[in-house]
């Protein structure tokens, strides 16, 4: 079978050109099928990227835990009792739960959210004061734009240093000032700025994070006279260990340490990010599967249209096929011509549908990025190259099958009957 036979391609060209309207609408069905498949795939990825960016680079195998009032009486304590985590809990968690990879105790200072609590010269502002360990920038990282983040020496020596967000920089410093090395006053205590950061999240979460000031956890305990109190924990599990296991063990340990009923599930609050992340990824897996089902169904509708049209073409060319058979054309020659014609039509239309779909997604992505608007639910619509090639491959294979039935009909007609055909 000679695919690159010039005479054969001339025949295909004139056959398709003979009825251009029919050829156009046949090809349009295939074009539209792959075009819609690409657009739906890109839209699904855009939604997934938007949802992912809302989380920044947070560790998806993490859990966050805080204290709540008890809901059950236990060992002489009444229900409704409130308690606090402490430094001893931190050490106990590290010592007794080997599945923990990172643990970051956190505390928040007073003020912020409209209350002026930070001063620099004649400028003041209300910001979120966070006491943290270095591990927090692994669990819930920010982008350090200048300087550095808090380190272990800062924690050990209770250094009066601060890492400030972009909004803090804009409100306390002039545009031409370099904040690194300068001092700000928090709770009447001077802190040296050692770093600046920008949130990796979107929208309101980014605004909230950008107005934060991170200081060493131990320093905040001292400045705010918190003693050994811990506000809440951010914890991640080691690789291949479900964070749910860490969550269960941590809750059991904390209930024991604070004399809480073993069945009191409300006393220790928690948010399991791994579970929520798995729900989201499973949802988008379902969306991707639905996209492929709908897209392939649309493609098949177009391919079936090609097959039906090729049947009509074969019927119209019955006498021509009979002449070819009479002068020595083999069944393989006839079959190959019909199949090549079918594949050419589907591949040609499919390529333009693929190209236009990818081009439209790139244009949409360019508009979103150049507009400067923060897309919170839709970002960077794209199509995986391998997935695009798979869809085109499916189309080409479908084109082969679309031509098989008309081709078999063509060779099933006896040459003498074909020559007698009046059509």
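-> sequence recovered:
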């Amino acid at each position: 079978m000679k695919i690159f036979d010039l005479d054969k391609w001339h025949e295909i060209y004139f056959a398709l050109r003979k009825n251009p309207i029919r050829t156009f609408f046949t090809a349009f069905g295939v074009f539209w099928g792959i075009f819609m498949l690409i657009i739906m795939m890109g839209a699904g990825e855009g939604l997934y990227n938007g949802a992912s960016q809302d989380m920044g680079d947070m560790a998806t195998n993490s859990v966050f835990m805080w204290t709540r009032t008890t809901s059950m009486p236990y060992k002489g304590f009444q229900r409704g009792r409130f308690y606090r985590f402490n430094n001893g809990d931190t050490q106990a968690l590290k010592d007794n739960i080997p599945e923990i990879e990172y643990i970051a105790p956190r505390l928040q200072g007073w003020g912020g959210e409209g209350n002026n609590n930070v001063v620099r010269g004649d400028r003041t502002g209300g910001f979120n004061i966070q006491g943290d360990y270095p591990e927090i920038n692994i669990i819930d990282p920010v982008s350090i734009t200048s300087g550095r983040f808090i380190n272990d020496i800062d924690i050990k020596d209770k250094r009066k240093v601060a890492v400030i967000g972009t909004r803090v920089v804009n409100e306390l410093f002039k545009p031409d000032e370099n904040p690194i090395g300068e001092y700000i006053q928090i709770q009447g205590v001077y802190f040296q700025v050692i770093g600046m950061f920008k949130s990796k999240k979107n929208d309101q979460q980014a605004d909230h994070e950008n107005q934060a000031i991170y200081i060493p956890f131990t320093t905040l305990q001292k400045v705010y006279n918190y003693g050994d109190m811990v506000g809440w924990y951010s914890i991640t599990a080691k690789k291949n260990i479900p964070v749910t296991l860490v969550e269960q063990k941590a809750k059991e340990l904390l209930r024991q340490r604070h004399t809480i009923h073993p069945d009191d599930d409300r006393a220790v609050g928690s948010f399991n990010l791994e579970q929520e992340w798995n729900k989201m990824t499973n949802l988008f897996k379902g969306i991707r599967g639905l996209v492929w089902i709908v897209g392939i169904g649309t493609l098949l509708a177009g391919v079936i249209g090609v097959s039906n049209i090729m049947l009509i073409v074969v019927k119209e060319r019955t006498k021509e096929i009979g002449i070819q058979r009479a002068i020595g054309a083999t069944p393989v020659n006839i079959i190959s011509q019909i199949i090549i014609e079918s594949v050419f039509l589907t591949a040609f239309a499919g390529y333009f549908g693929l190209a236009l779909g990818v081009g439209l997604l790139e244009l949409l992505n360019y508009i979103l990025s150049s507009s400067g608007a923060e897309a919170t639910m839709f970002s960077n619509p794209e199509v995986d190259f391998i997935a695009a090639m798979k869809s085109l491959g499916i189309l080409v294979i479908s084109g082969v099958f679309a031509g098989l039935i008309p081709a078999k009909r063509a060779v099933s007609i006896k040459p003498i009957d074909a020559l007698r055909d009046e059509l």
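The mean pLDDT is 82.
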